[in-house]
Amino acid sequence: MLSNSTSQGKYRYTLIIILAVMWVLVYLQRSNIGVLLVDHRFLEEMGLIGQAAKQGMLMTVFLLVYSLSNMLSVPISNRLGPRRALFLGVIIGTLSMLVGGWVASFTALILVRVILGLAHGIYHPNISLLVKNWIPPKERGTANAVVGVGGCLALVISLPLFSWIIYRLGWEYSFFIPGLLGLLAVIPLGLHWISDQPTNNPYISAPEMQYIVSHNQDNQKTESSPADSRGTRELLKNASFWLLAVIYTAFLCSWWGLMTWMPQYLVQARNFDISGMAGYISLAYAMAVVGILTGGRLVDRVQSQSIIGIAALSCVALATMGIALVPSPIGAVVFMALAVAINEFVYPTVWAIMQTSLPAHLVVTGSGIVSGVGNLLSAISPFIMGWLIQVSGSYTSGLLFLVGVAVLGTVSCVLLYRQDA
User: How far, CA to CA in Å, does 330 sit from each of 275, 276, 284, 318, 341?
Assistant: First the structure.
């Protein structure tokens, strides 16, 4: 629960859960590629057998376009408002997935991934604005955490789900089924269960609406105005804003780096079999759910939220070092689970600070830039780790790169704390 301290109503909690379910559906659409890369028929039909670089492009292209779309879709989102912008993203994402099941060439598949990246880049900035508009500041840490759980749950679901779909029905249905599931997100948007503001929602009680509005006095109109360009320029000059971008990049680098290389590390460096490795990776995703919810609750309970970032990223650096240096294979798994779980504390911290520090008409812009920059830079993290592993002949160098990134994020949190103080 987000809060038990008020009796004005709980519709805002329902809205956050709906957003979390939407995030599960959206995340599933991007998660089929990992399983497809071990399907021989798919690789053969796309001409990808023995083409590791092309296989990697299927994820890299998505991440790059997704990163840019977070930023470039901001004018469209500001004009449409979050509900209609999310509706647009759902429709484009669904259509791209349905087309993906019919493609017959690698080039066409790349185009599908480009369109999917454009659609998915619309989501995060608008979800961030909805949290800002609907949730009082003291509840935003938990609210962001609940939404973020959607991504973690999608990863827990995706491996067994897509394995079953591809084995029983064929690789085409790993596009068709998540594409059609994504259409379920149209229901809360079309029925106005989700609205841009609590003041124009037909389902919320008047006392709860007044409670939210009274606690969100900084909310302003989200449409474009002459002040927007000036406000954006001021935002880009703000050192605290860019520190948040660095912190979020450090979080994402650890996420993508660990999730990309840990399966191979556990098999090749720690001598686990494939089934054992899969179990431990699932454990890490489950720990991520616990971590993000715990972090969200802590964010709502501390005065200076940047302290959570300092503690979390410091622990992530130590846990990642433990993965590389502990002699016991089980010890390495424990440190991996700790690193993944504690790293998730950073997610609700960054977005709660962002939503509290920015006026409503700049939340989409600020969220789009931070998410776009973070995803763009972190997309390079698995490549850098791979290059370091290849050059040194050891996974330790790749893991130490993540340690350095976590330390950089910790320093940025310290600087942010000093500025706030």
Answer: 15, 11, 13, 17, 17
On whether the CB atoms of residues 224 and 81 are closer than 8 A, the answer is no
Whole-structure pTM value: 0.81
d(CA 84, CA 80): 6
Look at residues 200, 224, 248 and tell me which one is the last residue of a structural domain: 224
Q: Identity (one letter) of the amino acid at 9?
A: G
Element (H or E) spanning 244, and its range? helix 239-268
> At 228, is the pLDDT very low, low, confident or very high (cuts 50, 70, 90)?
low
Same structural domain, 218 and 252: no
Which residue, 375, 361, 262, 366, is CA-closest to 319? 262
- The string of pLDDT tens digits covering residues 24-51 is 999 999 888 877 877 889 889 998 887 7
Element (H, E) at 240: helix 239-268
Last residue of a domain, one of 224, 256, 290: 224
What lies within 8 Å, CB to CB, of 352 at 6+ separation is 137, 140, 141, 144, 299, 300, 305
The CATH number for 290's domain is 1.20.1250.20
Among 153, 372, 400, 150, residue whose Cα is nearest residue 257: 400
pLDDT category at 225 given cuts 50, 70, 90 is very low
pLDDT single digits (tens) 294-305: 999 999 888 888
**Alpha carbons 324 and 202: distance in angstroms, whole number:** 54
Nearest to 243 by CA among 416, 399, 369: 416
